[in-house]
Amino acid sequence: MVLMELLELSLKEVLYVFLGVRFTLKYLDKMRCLRKRSAVSFLGVLVICLLFMNLYIEDSYVLEGNKQLIRETATHQLNSERYVHTFKDLSNFSGSINVSYRYLAGTPLLRKRYLTIGLSSVKRKKGNYLLETIKSIFEQSSYEELKEIAVVVHLAEFDSLWCDGMVQDISQKFAHHIIAGRLMVIHTPEEYYPVLDGLKRNYNDPEDRVRFRSKQNVDYAFLLNFCANLSDYYMMLEDDVRCAKNFLTVVKKVITSREGTYWVTLEFSKLGYIGKLYHSHDLPRLAHFLLMFYQEMPCDWLLIHFRGLLAQKDVIRFKPSLFQHMGYYSSYKGAENKLKDDDFEEDSFDIPDNPPANLHTNINVFENYEASKAYSSVDEYFWGKAPSTGDFYVIVFEKPIKISRIKVITGTEDRQNDILHHGALEVGEKIVGGKKGRQCTTYLRLGEFKNGNLEITEVEHKVLFDINCMRILITKSQKEWLIIRSISIWTSQPPSQ
Length: 497
Prior knowledge:
Keywords: Glycosyltransferase, Membrane, Transferase, Transmembrane, Transmembrane helix. The protein is an alpha+beta fold and 497 residues long. It has twelve helices and 18 strands.
């Protein structure tokens, strides 16, 4: 809205000057009859030149004023929810940023992949972890997983000698991945970067810190821009991490479990820019966003604002974390950085499938701890007020499934008494009812809860039918409230059609 008003103002200024020029020309035509031709020509040319000089000066002044106002307004919008729609209008960029990249290793992809992993790296004063990070990505992926990923390394360093040396090392160590078309190394020439000196010193950061974080925003913007059409999804990593085994399989399970839900960012680590997953179709808008506010704040803060402005209010973070920070020295001045993600598990392959489903309960829900939160892959839970005999919590699967294993955990560390004291787990078939109240007509009891928990294996050998529903049934009233912390379901081969 602000941008449109400013453009409108600028157009009005131009229109007034244009009308003034037309009026002057008409006036000169009349004067032509009263003055000598030579004098009229000289005065006419002089007046027109002055008017055009005025147009240039006023337009430049308006343009600079507009730029400043837009910059100040955009900065203010960053912290206000009521400007969400304005931001969407201003940044609805579907096209890429006009940048010519240099391919330092690898060639353009011949086919689209499932996931692109993006790394941006610069010369460090101490230590270098890029090669170890690339190695971890490839070593922790199976042959089948490697077919679905592309790794893009953006060497965002202006020191050409360092870039040449790093490209040589990467090409020697990962030649077969480059030949296979799953590894590319790119560079953005310095000429495409905006001004990096004399920037605003927000948060009392020293000038060199402001320059470092501002350039980092631009580095990531150019990387995102390059990766926009390479795959369905994009994973942002730093250049000093190690990966969990078969992380791609886990990521795919999480994405599948969230089908039908809206999300902008899924997080697979709680640190910095590590393990942030995006839809590739959002990358052009995110790239423009980082460039728009590159000097305002660090990149991880901007990523939070971007998520919020696109209407994902809450963090959606998966546990255990799939990526761990391994660097000891920061890329900024070589300062020590000992941050570790204590939720990281290197062997995270045993992740539940949790197929798409609808969930409902007749237990009185407390505040916003809805039924769906117990079935989520993130750190959330269902919390209901004291349940009574016969109350239930039902999962109705979108398609009939074969289940191999089920695990349900109730209560939390700080509320250890809010467990299911008396309950059973059942699976059912033959769905009846509408969308809001779908149920199965028949159920088979598989087991009962002990100390608030339940785990059943080899379900496929105990249940002969394709499962449509799963139900937690309260078998005895309790005075304590109930927290269902997590429901995990592993599926076997899908049923034959």
